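wait is this the right file?? whatever heres the structure
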């Protein structure tokens, strides 16, 4: 539904906010790294709370660190938008932050125009979306169903558990269940996000209307051999964990290509070696697997195949191997009526759009378990993301934010009021 004259976000304010938040957590090497439960993240949270309050939102931080801004009626099922402000290591300025700040801007416009809301609006920055400790942690806590063991066992690469990180940051990890919303409390959730892939950019489309989000399985394959001297140990008398891990990775990709998987994605993005010294045969090599597809059965089949390859390789090199299941976020199909509303908003604003799946994981796939959920994409230049050069044309960012504004307004408006045009 579009309003006349059409509401518009304040471009200068939104782009300024994106720039300001993008400057938080940038180290002396110019790298932006803002994992949840870190001092850099805390600085971003404090900045965000100020911006939320300036937009007329009442703010709170829940039991697991989700930052929540609210306006409108005290009761009634909530219309929610949001994303995340944590980043990957050396990440870009838009992944997550764009959706949170566009949500704050929506609130700002609604309050500036004194629009009467039929339902409460909440804008959320979810904790640890990137999974420094546990993938999609904040939305999983908010949606409910998180097991205490997941908080105790999930660790970052340095070995700090989520439990320890929360505790050190000032939260009581035992109280994580308090973050869960009661069933039915949220009626709709919409997330605005950069696509993080090349489709919209190459197809020249303004808006992506997301119909599904891939499921993600994260595992740790550990190869356990024996350290020894690099010079004196004959080649046929070694238990070399790193050589086994290298062969495992190669055979995994070979099998994946032989199977001709088209929609699935396989990534070994990280490896930890002990003792990690050039003149010592590795006693341990842990490789991190990220496997995705819209079809959860397909990723289950792929993981089974990789587990049998790991066992064969370990046998061949006379070493042990084990697998740690880190997280499994199920694929999500998004709500057709929210997709329709996004399409109407884009059309009303004279923008081109296309329906597409998301190859990236998002909090929306968790929220889809408890309410009607939708996602709006804008193009990523050259499809680049999880990279400091992640970039989207500012005009595209504004178009996406206006589509979010109109989509949210259509869900929130009590009656079709004639607001004055917002200030630019
Ligand atoms: O990994 C992802 O897909 C998301 O950016 N956390
Ligand atoms: Mn993201
Ligand atoms: Mn990301």
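ok assuming it is, sequence goes like this
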């Amino acid at each position: 539904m579009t309003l006349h004259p059409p509401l518009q976000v304040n471009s200068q304010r939104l782009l300024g906010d994106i720039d300001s938040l993008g400057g938080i957590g940038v180290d002396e090497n110019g790298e932006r790294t803002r994992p949840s439960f870190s001092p850099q993240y805390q600085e971003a949270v404090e900045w965000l709370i100020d911006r939320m309050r300036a937009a007329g939102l009442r703010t709170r931080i829940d039991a697991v660190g989700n930052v929540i801004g609210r306006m409108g009626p005290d009761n009634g099922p909530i219309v929610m938008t949001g994303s995340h402000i944590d980043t990957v290591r050396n990440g870009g300025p838009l992944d997550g932050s764009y959706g949170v700040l566009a949500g704050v801007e929506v609130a700002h416009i609604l309050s500036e125009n004194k629009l009467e809301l039929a339902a409460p609006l909440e804008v959320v920055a979810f904790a640890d979306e990137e999974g420094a400790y546990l993938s999609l942690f904040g939305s999983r806590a908010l949606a409910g169903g998180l097991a205490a063991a997941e908080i105790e066992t999930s660790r970052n690469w340095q070995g700090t558990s989520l439990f320890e990180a929360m505790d050190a940051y000032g939260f009581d990890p035992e109280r994580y269940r308090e973050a869960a919303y009661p069933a039915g409390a949220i009626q709709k959730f919409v997330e605005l996000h950069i696509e993080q892939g090349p489709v919209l950019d190459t197809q020249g489309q303004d808006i992506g209307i997301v119909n599904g989000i891939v499921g993600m399985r994260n595992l740790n394959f550990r190869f356990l051999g024996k350290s020894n001297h690099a010079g004196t140990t004959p080649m046929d008398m070694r238990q070399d964990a790193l050589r086994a891990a290298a062969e495992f990775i190669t055979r995994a990709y070979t099998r994946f290509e032989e199977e001709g998987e088209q929609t699935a994605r396989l990534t070994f993005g990280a490896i930890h070696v002990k003792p990690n010294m050039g003149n010592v045969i590795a006693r341990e090599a842990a490789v991190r697997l990220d496997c995705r597809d819209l079809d959860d059965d397909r990723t289950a089949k792929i993981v089974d195949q990789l587990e049998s390859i790991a066992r064969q390789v370990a046998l061949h090199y006379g070493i042990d191997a084990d697998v740690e299941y880190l997280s499994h976020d199920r694929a999500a199909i998004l709500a057709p009526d929210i997709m329709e509303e996004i399409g109407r908003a884009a059309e009303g604003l004279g923008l081109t759009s296309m329906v597409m799946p998301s190859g990236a994981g998002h909090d929306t796939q968790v929220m889809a378990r408890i309410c009607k959920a939708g996602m709006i994409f804008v193009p990523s230049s050259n499809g680049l993301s999880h990279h400091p050069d992640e970039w989207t044309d500012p005009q595209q960012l504004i178009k996406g934010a206006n589509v979010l504004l109109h989509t949210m307004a259509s869900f929130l408006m009590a009656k079709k009021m004639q607001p004055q045009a917002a200030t630019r």
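The chain has two domains: 11-214+331-412, 215-329. so i think its the right one actually
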